Amino acid sequence: VEASMNDMDGVLVVESYLEFSDSTATGNLRDGVLLVESESVLNAATLIDQVVHGLHMSGGFATVRNSDILRNQAEGVFEQKARLTLIDSNVSNNINNGVLLENALIDVLRTVFDANGISGLYGGNNSSATLTDSTLTNHPANGAFFSTSSGDFLRCTITDNAPHGIGTDVAVLVLVESAISRNETHGIDLVNS
Fold it and tell me: How far, in Å, CA of 74 to CA of 1, rounded?
């Protein structure tokens, strides 16, 4: 499936199930894929160059595997009150954050976040992120940032971010066997945490 150059979303799913495999959403004037209280599997998907978000979730559950979420004009992934599993994917060069969480949960495995315009991953508003064997690099406003949220990092690499590898404001962090290096100011900046 190729969902491209539409005046709204490439694919809109409301209270339904979507399997989006070996498919592309590109250049849509809103989101590449918009899930509203839905369940979805995206496998070998390409979500690129949307005017808003690559993947937008409002409620529901999704698994994204072996996918590229690149060069979207807002977030690569915007997740609100939802749960996402992101595996073996690339979330890079999005204008805002690679992933923005609002009261959401994300589990990340073997995924690269590179050169997004703000942070690789921003968890806010009681969100929780668990990252394993993943890389966050080359972000101008923290590799990851958590505000009233939590982040767990297992065997992750967080390098070459500004100002910090991980920034916080009222957050809980757990790091195990992770490398945090060459960040502009601090590797980890714990504020009110």
Answer: 23
Q: Is a pLDDT exceeding 90 seen at residue 130?
A: yes
DSSP state for residue 141 in the 8-state scheme: T
Q: Which residues of 114-148 are buried (b: 16+ CB within 10 A; e: fewer)?
A: bebbbbbbbbbeebbbbbbbbbbbbbebbbbbbbb
Q: Is the pLDDT of residue 191 over 90?
A: no
CB under 8 Å, gap of 24 or more: what pairs does 111-120 form? Answer: 111/86, 111/87, 111/135, 112/137, 113/137, 113/139, 113/143, 114/90, 114/138, 115/139, 116/76, 116/91, 116/92, 119/143, 119/144, 119/145, 119/167, 120/91, 120/144, 120/161
